[in-house]
Please model this.
Amino acid sequence: MNFREQRENFRNKKISAKEAVQEALCKVENDKLNIFISNLRDSAEKRAEEIDNNFEKYKDRPLSGVPIAHKDIFCTENIQTTCGSKMLSNFIPPYSSTVTRNCDEAGSVMIAKTNMDEFAMGSSNETSFFGPVGNPWNDSLVPGGSSGGSAACVAANITSISTGTDTGGSIRQPAALCGITGMKPTYGLVSRWGMIAFCSSMDQAGPFARDAFGCAALLDAMASYDGKDSTCSKRDVVNFENALAEDFGALNIGIIKNIEDLGINNDVLEAYEHSKSVLQQLGHTLKEIDFSELSSGICSYYVIAPAECSSNLSRFDGVKYGYRSDQNNISELYMKTRSEGFGDEVKKRILIGTHVLSAGFYDAYYLKAQQVRRMMKNKFEDIFKDVDLIFMPTTLDQAFEKNRQDSDPNRMYKEDLLTIPANLAGLPAISFPNGFKNNLPVGGQFVGNYFKEDLLLNTANKIQEVTDWHKMTP
Amino acid sequence: MDKIELKNLLFLARIHAEEREYPEITKKLTNTFNLIDEMNNLDLQGLEPLNNPLELNNVSREDEEKNRNQKDKFLDQSPESDDDHFMVPKIIE
Amino acid sequence: MAQNDTVINGWQPVIGLEVHVQLLTNTKLFSPAKNKFGEDANSLVDLIDMGLPGVLPVLNEGAMNQGIKFGLATSAKIAETMIFDRKNYFYPDLPKGYQITQLHYPIVKDGIVDLGYKKVRIHQAHLEEDAGKSMHDQYDSNSVIDLNRSGVPLLEIVSEPDLRSAQEAVDYLKKIHQIITYLDISDGNMSQGSMRCDANVSIMRPDSKEYGTRAEIKNINSFKFVEKAINHEIKRQMKILEAGGEIEQETRLYDAVKDETRSMRTKEFANDYRYFPCPDLVPTHISKEQIEHVKNTMDELPEEKEKRFKDQYKLDDYDSKVLCAEKETAKFYEEVVQNCDPQIAAKWIIGELNALLNKNELSLADSKITSSNFAALILKISDGTISGKIAKDILEDIWESGNAVSDIIDSKGLKQISDTGEIEKVIDEILENNKSQVEAYKSGKDKLFGFFVGQVMKATQGKANPGMVNQLLKDKLS
Model:
């Protein structure tokens, strides 16, 4: 059942919030894919009853009566929040993130918290301390990452919506690999308060749903100005669900010249070509654009993200909360707490980040990476003088086998080649299913100008009105 | 990166590793730096470094107290504490 | 540039100070928890001060305004855009594993502090957060952490190496103390750590064009220790250089108990703070309007007050300077002169009252002297009700008891004699005993009139009503 039907059923009193929640919880409990880190049956049932008892109050809210799963990166008051790490496996925050609070306000019921790559570092959900997640289409394949659990949760029809975060593609890539719709909003549209930081200048929370409609409604709930986040945008938030009905007319859509040279596999390219023809059928004009800088995003990203993470993760030291390795010497306590509490990928990125910020290397790495970032932003600004949106595949490949990382880690990093540029520039992007090959979904994405979420959602929705890829289920 | 440099880096990051793990760690880091070093092929002259994509003006708040004492909650959550403090092994200055 | 009188045994000391000042604000630099000293451990701690995951800093406008004030007070450049950086290091009382500070784009740059005999340049003053406190004495094998201080706003004021002696360093520090307390930027309490000082000290030959290698002395927390620590360090460096050795660039700790500086244990690895712009805070623009607003709400500076005192109360340079040295004294003075003669009041505050304060090592606020009672005393002096000698006695009485001036006069029988008969009796007796002076007066020596008044007052222990004494004497001598 998709989000829209589920919400309609609640609003028409065909199903109560409690019934919807119980049905979803039943699926959570039968999950064989390791999608969840915690199951919140008690609090969920209580909350659902509260919503049912106050039906009039909640019925018109954007997420009224709909069960939701949150990525375990969002702090939830008095509920375990692990970020997929041993370091926080016992952590109970005394506060809630703005995102989860907003979703509660919007009438949704949190039923579970989803598995993820440790501290959101990974593209396959294999770095989680709680084990890998299986792809609902084929459980020997990865669901993508880092928001792998949230994407799998919607793909497996357990909930109709879920939340994720996207630092280098962590919403769009798993959305593509699981065959659902996922969106990374403009940096600053959604508050980062209470969302455990990986790379503060790129992290952005966003919605997962089967279709653009669900994403629009969930984004309506998630986005708000928040005085507790100094990087949050103060602009008035538009109503994205209403924007779906608007007519933005015929668009100029940018198509990247020679994109096939970037190592994208043929099945993905085939779906991409097909989508281009759909866009033309919808009356849009395709304009070829030169974007040779696109692939330079990766090297910059693997400096900036580790640099910020090395600093952001310094607070995990075993002194105030979280895991501690008991030692009788303070220096040993630090060293062992952090080597035992963090997994290998996280430690590797901390080391890279520490190195690129250290004396003598700062200019050669960190400063240069920030210049690449400027280059990327300038390039996008140029492109958006000529086109309304850019269309490209979301990923190089479809869902891949587990344990691929072991053979070639850089191949895994390059998996984010097409998603990273939007993060570096802080632009909004939406990934949606646009094909089906080898019994697996394929994803394509739009990247738009700053705060053009309404246009992205509207255009994706128009495609979904004439295609069926988003309706396929495992 | 030689052994001393790696040891220094591990210490700066406060991550423990046995010396026998050094070659494996070095290999992984080198691998990533090979990817990063592609940056050196770019012409970046004259580009102002960009720290934050939105280039907003920072916000500030009024100097008003808005905090409740959560001492007990914080101390309960900590790995080791007495009634008033967080505790760690003795710091020798 | 080197002044000869600061050269010691052929060596010119060169000193720069880094002064950390805790700002007077209601809340912390990035969290809404209370900024207060001496509260129950860990009771003033917000999620942000705990460095919990996912929580974010938001800048306190009050702290920013304090920084702007300091910039205005030192004729400095106030940043159009200031940027916060992270300084990364691990320590148990640093909850985030980094301190938010300002490295390249501080709030204040290029100020001047005028010591009267020389101008000292301020390199910069930047905003940063204080760390918590670690304590090591409670348990045998544990240290404990109190995070109340974590996140308290600091202004770090960095001077250029313009100071040439320990005395100049002390004068500079006192001037900084005067500015920050005058403007309520800080309470400046060194014993509670609201003002802390590190000194960079080097020595060179007076004709040298290059500074020597410097040592940084940390942890100096009183004016007295600043002088001692610097002088000690100068001597240490002279000894090394004269023996042909080299100064190591290092951080040294001042030990007030042993009166020595000692090297802080060299760490296994050098610290590398890995500064980078804090991504949770974007560049902060400071508008002309905001600066103007701060300027308009800012209290008078010491120099401005001195000038006004000279104009308004007709005081000389010295008196106005002494009265304005501390804001508390100046405020007291202005309260007193609302109702009495400004010059007599100045004289009595600078003289007798200051002497009492110094003798007892008390501040005005801690003494029993109130401005209204003190003004009452000055009034009695200026209208001639009591003599200076009696006034002194009364002041000492107030110092001890805090009683009202009029009560003291009543209870001690210091009340003036206004009975004509009684005064006449005394005058007659004095004229009888000083016949030759009476003759001299009558033959034109007018100045002797004062002598007779003095004699009458002496005989009445200063209690005779001076107006009546004058009138009666005039009548009898005519």
